[in-house]
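TICKET #2291
ISSUE: user wants both folds in one file
ATTACHMENT 1:
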Amino acid sequence: MLDVSDEVRAEIGEEETERLLNGENAPGTYDCTSCRTPGDTGQEPTSTVLFVGDETAVLAFAHAACIPSQVVPVAESQLQGAARSMSVSGGEQAEAAAPAPVEAAPRQAVLGITCGLIIVEDQLRPALVVEPTGPVARVGAEGGGDDFLPLLIEQGFVPQLDLDTRPSALSGWSVLLAMGKLHAVLQPGPGGGPATAWWQAHQPLQVSDGWRAAVSRSNEVYVYAGPAGSIGRQPREDLMRDALARACARGQLVAATMPLSGT
């Protein structure tokens, strides 16, 4: 029931692949890294998804109906934060083909992003709402705390104290839209190098016509972020704004205005 693609197999090696397929290092139950609902490798087809940074690789699991088995490049800073916050159940550390530690992660914290429109200064503005699926600890930190907001503030995000106010601009960051679909949120590269993906869609995300029309007017996106459990996935935009307002009132919201990259 477990699918390991050729590209994932090449990264983790034949020995680790066989251990997975034989059930020795499979998670059993897991939270799907795509839809974030429970899955079971013994009951339903499951994809292995390998998130790869510059120095770290994390093996996660997803419903095969959600995404195929694949290797997903991500920013090292995002990957290390996720690796620190994982709750590993029955998994042993394995070595990848590259010198990168691979951990079985049935409950990996990943960044969830919701697209929506928000009224700010009496105009509809395109927004992205970012919330991880679990606590994100600082690399090297002990005690299991959640450093998601402090880490973002260090990157230039600003605490949002009033939803009716435009978030501050964040230099060097941008939102990548290509062929009308959301691909990534980009951050400055290390040492002034090319931009890297802070968040990257497993598959390009379709955005609504209204969202695309709003962003085409301003060429900028309001990006709001809160720690795990502070906002939630809301089915309507009015409910999303209410959830943002509650997080704002609790001091659990940071934000930034980013230019649009692409079309």
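ATTACHMENT 2:
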Amino acid sequence: MTSSQFDPKQPVQLAPPKDDKIPRLELLQYDGVKSDLIYVGIKGTVFDVTNNIKAYGPGTSYHIFTGKDSSRGLAKSSLKPEDNSFENSYVIDDLTPSELKVLEDWFTFFSKRYNIVGKVVD
């Protein structure tokens, strides 16, 4: 896949990326339930997906990815709880090369659509 395959249908104006440190436990609040903001982390980078509540809001399929670094579930294309639990969702050291490629594709996809609001820290 080329990066142009990930370009949004409509141009998106993105703000300059922020480098704020967001503790893993604090990220839990940005799930659209505890806060109006909805964040998804990928490879330690936090994206603000609030403007896509239809996909990431409470009650949607992709809500499972919110409020944490969801690298594992995205890489595995998995909505399974065990791949998306707070304890496991960011663990990627055992992924296959093809899963890591999928994760990289997701990172590119998000990077072209959503503002970066910070980095996950422990």
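RESOLUTION: both attachments delivered.
EXTRA DETAIL ON ATTACHMENT 2: Strands lie at 21-23, 39-42, 45-48, 115-121.
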